[in-house]
Amino acid sequence: MISRMDLLQSLAIENEKKMVLLVMDGLGGLPGEDGLTELEKAKTPLMDRLAAESELGLLSMVDVGITPGSGPGHLSLFGYDPLTWSIGRGILEALGVGAHVGAGDICARGNFCTVDADGVILDRRAGRIPSEESARVVEKLQKEIKSIENVKVTFYPGREHRFVVVFSGENLSEEVNDADPQKEGLPMRWAEARNEKALRTEKIINAFIRKVWEVLKDENPANGCLLRGFSSAPHIPSLKELYKIKPMALATYPMYRGLARLVGMEIGNAGETLEQLFDAVGNYWKDYSYFYVHVKYTDSRGEDGNFAEKVKIIEEVDRLLPKILDLKPDVLAITGDHSTPSFLSGHSWHEVPLLLWSPFARRCNAVEFGEKACSAGTLGRMQGDKLIGLMMAHGLKLNKYGA
To answer: Which one, of 251, 339, 278, 274, lies nearest residue 38 by Cα?
Structure first.
């Protein structure tokens, strides 16, 4: 049986139509005291107007009831079945910061954290220390830790509390569980090998973390680290070769640039602020046909459990949306890579709202863009990896199938 990806590749045609995928990370939410989610609570007159002219629906990124990480969620949006293309978060973050990950190397995404004398994790993000402070701590670590048991260690600073570490040596394995308890107030969860071949890697990783804690013992608040997403460099077919599009990625956070680079997107200068991010789309408009625009802060505020601040970010996106609409895209999709309800302070399994606008949309005459409206929309519930094909259809980028 032909796969959907192969089918789309066989039907894809190149034209000048412009498509925009606007991803508000962690967009989906749960109702507050007044019965409204963050998206429904937000004052979004422009998105509400677009909803009346669009097709609405809900996206399931992996499968019903499965909570997706950002990597699988984005791969799904880009048209890759995340159950087929399993990619570690570490390699995504590494590519995003420009790290070199060679054959046989293992990389991981690091969080600076605050840990007490008993090994209990007090703050998994070390108060979201500024990027400049994080870079200083990374430089300190690189001077003190150059290798662990004959395995070379290379640090790369990231954004805020994040960094990347690359382990280069013999017989390393990515088959190691995260060294992270996932919640504050719990004792450290050390790396664990998933098979015998990974036992050496488990030992090296845990020795590395202990060494980091020793070097940082006098630092505050970043006196420890957690590691997640152990992974090596995969091979994945590019969007350009699959779908005959010229893709541009605009994202402020390294991991999402890494995701985009992994699937063959060009990486643009997205600036540091939301205003700069939306301004950047116009800077690249004439040279590309597919734009991935990533807004991180909806997810960050959801993870912080801050309902009101997540609402404000959604409202800010609505205010900035004319910067994209004035460019007159032929297709516009607004969605998220997963849900991050403020009341859960983390990712969830809930389906993600989707708005798809084009001149060929079957309008559902909705009065707003929100979870309830999307649940009643013309698109119904669909798998996330079908979105790119639907966007291409609306962009007249697919030939007819069969006679």
So the answer is: 339
> Do 339 and 347 meet the contact criterion of CB atoms below 8 Å apart?
yes
Match 């699937």 to its residue by tokens. 263
Q: Can you state the percent helix, strand and coil of the chain, rounding each to 5?
A: 35, 25, 45
238 contacts: CB under 8 Å, gap ≥ 6: 263, 264
Please calculate the CA angle 94-127-28 and round it to the nearest 5 degrees: 70
Question: Residue 225 and residue 121: Cα distance in Å, rounded?
Answer: 10
Instruction: Supply the pLDDT for residue 389.
Output: 97
DSSP for 58-70, written as a single string: EEESSSTTPPPPH
Give Cβ neighbours of residue 132 (< 8 Å, ≥ 6 apart).
Answer: none
Q: What is the mean pLDDT of residues 183-203?
A: 96
Answer for the pair 87, 392: CB distance below 8 angstroms, yes or no: no
Contact 179, 187 (CB under 8 A): no
Q: Which of 399, 382, 398 is nearest to 64 (CA)?
A: 382
First to last CA, the chain: 19
Among 38, 23, 62, residue whose Cα is nearest residue 343: 38
User: Quick one: pLDDT band at residue 269, thresholds 50, 70, 90?
Assistant: very high
Q: What is the dihedral of CA 374, 375, 378, 382, to 10 degrees?
A: 100
d(CA 102, CA 345): 35
Distance CA(304)–CA(158), nearest Å, equals 19
- pLDDT for the residue 276: 97
pLDDT higher than 80, residue 208: yes
The 10s digit of each residue's pLDDT in 327-377 is 999 999 999 999 999 999 999 999 999 999 999 999 888 999 999 999 999
The pLDDT tens digits of the residues spanning 375-400 come to 999 999 999 999 999 999 999 999 99
- Integer Cα distance of 312 and 110 in angstroms: 28
Q: Prior bond to 221 cis, omega within 30?
A: yes
Give the pTM.
0.77
Query: What's the pLDDT at 200?
Result: 96
Between CA 354 and CA 370 the distance in angstroms is: 9
Are 242 and 12 spatial neighbours (Cβ–Cβ below 8 Å)?
A: yes
Residue 114: is it exposed, middle or buried by C-beta count within 10 angstroms (0-12/13-18/19+)? buried
